[in-house]
Amino acid sequence: MIRSEENAPISKVLVIGAGIAGMQAALDVANAGYSVLLVDRLPSIGGHMAQLSETFPTLDCAQCILTPRTVEVGHHDNIQLMTYSEVESVEGKLGNFRVVVRRDPAYVDWDVCTGCGACTEKCPKRVISTQFEVSMGRRKAIYTLSPQAVPNKPVIDVGNCIWFQRGKCRVCEKVCPTGAINYDQEAYTLEERVGAIIVATGYDLYPVVNLGEYGGDQVPDVIDGLAFERLLSSSGPTAGKVRRPSDGKEPKEVVFVQCAGSRDPELHMPYCSKICCMYTAKHAMLYKHRVHDGQAYVFYIDIRSAGKRYEEFVQRAMEEDDTLYLRGKVSKIFRDGDKTVVWGTDTLIGQNIEIAADLVVLATAMVPRLEGKLVAQMLDLPTDENGWILPAEDNIQPVETRWPGIFLAGAASGPKDIPETVAQASGAAGKVLSLFARWGREQEREGQLQTSPEAERLAYA
Amino acid sequence: MRVKLSRASIKNDLVRKIEEISGQDLLACYQCGKCSAGCPAAFAMDMLPSQVIRYAQLGMVDKVLQSDTPWFCAACQTCYARCPKGVDLARIMEAVREIILQENGDHVTVDDIPAAELAEFPQQLFIGGFRKYTA
Amino acid sequence: MKIPYFPGCTLSTTARGFDNAVRASAMTLGVELVELPEWNCCGATFPLLVDNAIDLIGPAEVLYKASQEGQQLATACTTCYNVVKRTNRTLKEDGDMLDKVNYFLEHDSDYEGSVEVLDVVQILRDEVGWDEVREAVKKPLDGLKVAAYYGCMVVRPPDEVAYDDPDDPTSLDDMLSALGGQRVAWPHKTECCGAYLAVKSPEVTREMSYAVLSSAIRNGAELIVANCPLCQFNLDRQQQTMSQRYAGYEPIPVLYYAQLLGLALGLDGSGYDLDKTTVDARPLLGRVGLL
Fold this sequence. Notes:
The structure holds three protein chains of three kinds. Chain B is mainly alpha-helical. Chain B has helices at residues 7-10, 13-22, 34-38, 49-57, 61-65, 69-72, 78-82, 89-104, 115-120, 123-133. Chain B has two domains: 8-104, Alpha-helical ferredoxin (Fumarate Reductase Iron-sulfur Protein, Chain B, domain 2), CATH 1.10.1060.10; 107-135, no CATH class. Chain B has ten helices and no strands. Chain C is α/β, with parallel strands linked by helices. Chain C folds into two domains: 2-120, Glutathione S-transferase Yfyf (Class Pi), Chain A, domain 2; 138-287, Rossmann fold (3-Layer(aba) Sandwich). In chain C, 43% of the residues lie in helices and 10% in strands. In chain C, the strands form two sheets. In chain C, strands 2-1-3-4 form a four-stranded parallel sheet, sandwiched between helices. In chain C, strands 6-5-7-8 form a four-stranded parallel sheet, with helices on both faces. The mean pLDDT of chain C is 97. Classes of the chains: A alpha/beta, B mainly alpha, C alpha/beta.
């Protein structure tokens, strides 16, 4: 079959999501010399990993291992980075997808903005950062997600901006040295053609408000794991000092509650979220490293620390950092005076346990991102009953989907840790590079373009 | 002394009976202890509510029949309301009570109650109590 | 509106004060609770064995009689509410059990599961609304700090009986707010008082009631209101010996929400049996102008 120029397969990949999975996949493809369109919903890249303080099992500083990646992505000649953007539609098939990406208005002209930060500094409106700081800290109405944001360009939060809400202020415009503020900026769409797609939309955490018996998000000193990461993070709202939300005191008795919403087919999520046993041990250790006279308690049902020196890591939390592991699930958490009371049990001695904690950290279930589910719908990818995107086959095709040319990487297909995510990202990139390499060889053949039996099979599968 | 387990010992008639009259699958319980942690009467019990299930899972129903735990259950349903596996422990407790009552007779009789109390106390206390404590 | 009403045995005798208060205050708010012409005891505890058909007969008969009067049934005693409502659901889901029960009851027609069981507080919330209650107040509670005690029966099991958030219900709190009371946030509002354990183990009931009482007191409550005669009894009566067990224990009055509601609506409180409690609430009520 002779293929004309018009429907020649395009060796460019769309990567949806620029967390660690999307970035790794994008870099692998870009470093091989091919073009990447990398799209992320947030103003800057890095996903949830950018919120972490240190990663298990090495206790590497998350920023230290992430920033080289984000910077490389930000500067890469082969990566077309579109942040604050969403994929609106996808049509076509392997080799020839027509995608439309919408870029929301930041109200800042990023071509002119130098990232000096004067606007953010002078903005008079301070609000709680519910997203990046998980309500542990604040930001301004004009903001970047973090000091190391890539791109380091701000966006305006219209709902909290005094100009947009009340017609006053415009201080950012006044102080901007390059005139980058533009309150009339509009959304725009971009139409692109790509040959393959990698879905790397990641995860969210199960909302604490759904855990009524744990306070339902009404008890100030009950927080989730990502919020605790922000407290531990040296670039976070407390500069890495562990302070409890209610009054800023340093907590001396900290209770960690595993399986908060996981392994609960009756009321919440039926599956195990895989990473919580490990990050809880990490949290206990990091807490103890910062608060030497503090005590960490972990309520658990089982400890899941498989392979990769993970078991040894958890043992360290117990032996070196004196974490008391209590085998039993917590039934109720409530405020009493300035303490947060935890009612749990120790099934090993057969006694109920009560702890008057200063701070409680819930290891809440990982859940698929809502936006990820919408992307799955848009691409007609099946999801399981819990919303995780299904790969073509669970055992030996973890990064492929039912559609040729569309691949998965990272937590979009289910709970997983960083090493697995990065491996999958490179796996998906490998699949994509395999396609691009084949198409390239085909196009090199002199004269007419010819199909190989394999390409034929893939194109019409 | 080691507890000797075998097919016959763990799936004995009493275990079957508990499952039958409570309508619960004992092995659905993964012993997380959340029921015990929330039980308002556990402080009075000689074994935790979750241990009642554990002994039954091991076929050691005799241990359960000798325990005072089922008699301190107030059927407040906190266990069932929070169980991540949907195991209705309140029903299991009732099943254990019923087996003990049929074996040993009533746990309380009218003669046990002082006349003054019978006159003054709300009758739902006695109706409910007698429903739970007599065969 | 008129709605068929099942008072239950305890409201007709030792807790008559609750019954009188509930009927009078509901009537003032436009809800006439019409007592079923004939009724029987609900059994005071929902039978938990799956083959216990005989203990379902009592509540099933109540449902049958209710179905002869209408499609809804109101209860004020939350234990009756729980038993009758759970029975209703069992009969609706288990066709065999429904057949067995109908066969035993030997009425001309079968009960089909047509009745909706409602708690009086639920009716006041949904049919009257707290705004209208606020308008009708003649003697506001004057900032009185009242801890609303919900107990177990209206919240558990949540999917069978709860008409409010099972971990942090607010319907009674909203009512008290409408009456001019000050809300008390406290963590034991749905912790069990001990229920029927008092039959054999009063000291256990005392401990369980103490946990509830001390929590309300610690969180600033001046008064506790309950929605079940057994709860009111346990929390009130156990205070008689509380200072023997807990030195320095200060008593706190425990009433039914309906008594407070009636007084706030300007009713004279006759028949409310306010003189029959262990801890006398009348001085406190007098201080805020309700008596």
